[in-house]
């Protein structure tokens, strides 16, 4: 492991980047006077139109929209 990629791959495998992400998020929240742990989460999705050339049997539907 003598290359930059070698270190990156090892850190990725060990979850170091996930740990850093969590730590930085907590520090930013605290610096802004908010709780370090989130109390809510927002998820978003986008539906796109399919091509008119795709048979209806091959198209998915989103009944929730």
Question: What portion of residues belong to β-strands?
Answer: under 5%
Strands, count: 0
Largest sheet: none
Measured between the Cα atoms of the first and last residue, the distance is 49 Å
Question: Mean of the pLDDT scores?
Answer: 84
Q: Helix count? A: 2
Helicity, in percent? 40-55%
Report the radius of gyration as a whole number of Å: 21 Å
Protein name: DDE transposase
Organism: Streptomyces olivochromogenes
Mind explaining what this structure looks like?
With 65 residues, the chain is mostly helical. It has a domain at 1-36. The chain has two helices and no strands. It has helices at residues 4-14, 16-31. The relative contact order is 0.07. The model has no long low-confidence stretch (mean pLDDT 84). This is DDE transposase. It comes from Streptomyces olivochromogenes.
Quick rundown:
This protein has 65 residues and is mostly helical. The protein contains 2 helices and no strands.
Itemize the secondary structure elements and their pairings.
Elements: H1 4-14, H2 16-31
What attributes does this structure have?
mainly alpha, 65 residues
